[in-house]
Predict the 3D structure of the following.
Amino acid sequence: MLTDPVADMLARIRNANKALHEHTEMPTSRLKEGIARILKEEGYITDFHVKKGESFDTLVIHLKYGRSRERIITDLKRVSKPGRRVYAGKDRLPRVLGGMGVAILSTSTGLITSRTAEEKGIGGEVVCFIW
């Protein structure tokens, strides 16, 4: 059975965050790099980079914690799955925890947050929620 690569990415971040690891590694893709870019822009991770490998490249995500090691990422949730795609129109964009969290959307212009999609007036596929 093939697994969902984005769900795998979110699970790896969730598990590393729970175990208070400094970083986590996973096979890379353009979609995963886009999600990591948004996580960095929104301040949920410190940094990410792609490590070149012989057979495949690896995405390394450096997790972020507060002063007394409290977690910045409370949870991540995959919304649109391969078996059930979830789309949001420009007038029905999702809000995560009343604006405290971030919804990542896949649009015709690439991966963006729901806040940016609202400003641009576009909708798309709801990839995941982060809070």
